[in-house]
Amino acid sequence: MKLIVGLGNPGSDYAMTRHNAGFMAVERIARRHGLTGLRHKFHAGVLEGVIAGQKVLLMQPTTFMNRSGLAVGEAVMFYKLEPADILVLVDEVALDVGTIRLRAEGTPGGHNGLADIQRVLTTKAYPRLRIGVGPQGPGPRADFVLARFTEHQFAALHPALERAADAVECWLREGIDKAMSLYNAADA
């Protein structure tokens, strides 16, 4: 089992905000592969299926961002997953809209969702795919990430979500190193 987690905040107030780019990517993957039958399990909305020959659990935690580790931790314990079996899709203000970046491990980089997952897993050695939502303008980060994309930004986000779905499929088929070599370079 591979766990693909899109981070975001639950509820219609947060739909289509920059902080929900991870949710949007998971929804894109589910549509692409015809995965339906959303269930609520592990403090998350989950879909199970097969992508690229791998059994997967797509997850959108129903907790707020700063408690994302609760859902991830429950699924990891239930399925007895290793950190390398998890891929977290998350918004990134340090990357321009339209850009994605895969890493095999890393620090939370100021992202509360990643920080909570790291706290629960007790490791930073789990893959993550950062989806650019920046650049951030003046003002508090929270205000920026909780705002909706502009029309121009949303147009640039669409192909990035497609590349994110492609990168997830590559990760499932060929592993994180191959996915990083192909999709980190594809941002040009």
TL;DR?
The protein is an alpha/beta fold. Helix content is 38%, strand content 24%. It contains six helices and seven strands; from the N terminus they run βαβββαββαβααα.
Q: Explain this structure to me?
A:
With 188 residues, this protein is α/β, with parallel strands linked by helices. The protein is 38% helix and 24% strand. The chain has helices at residues 21-32, 68-79, 112-121, 141-145, 151-174, 176-183; strands at 2-6, 39-41, 44-51, 54-61, 86-96, 100-103, 128-134. Strands 2-3-4-1-5-7-6 form a seven-stranded mixed sheet, sandwiched between helices. α1 crosses α5. The radius of gyration is 15 Å and the shape is globular. The chain starts with a strand and ends in a 5-residue tail after the last helix. The model has no long low-confidence stretch (mean pLDDT 95).
Observed structural traits:
single chain, 188 residues, alpha/beta, 7-stranded mixed beta sheet, 7 strands
Q: Please give the order of strands in the largest beta sheet.
A: 2-3-4-1-5-7-6
Characterize the overall form.
Answer: globular
Structural class: alpha/beta
Number of helices: 6
Beta content: 15-25%
- Residue share in helix: 25-40%
What is the arithmetic mean of pLDDT? 95
- Biggest sheet: strands, sense, closure? 7 strands, mixed
Identify low-pLDDT runs: none
Q: State the separation between the terminal residues, measured CA to CA.
A: 32 Å
Q: Helix-strand pattern, N to C?
A: EHEEEHEEHEHHH
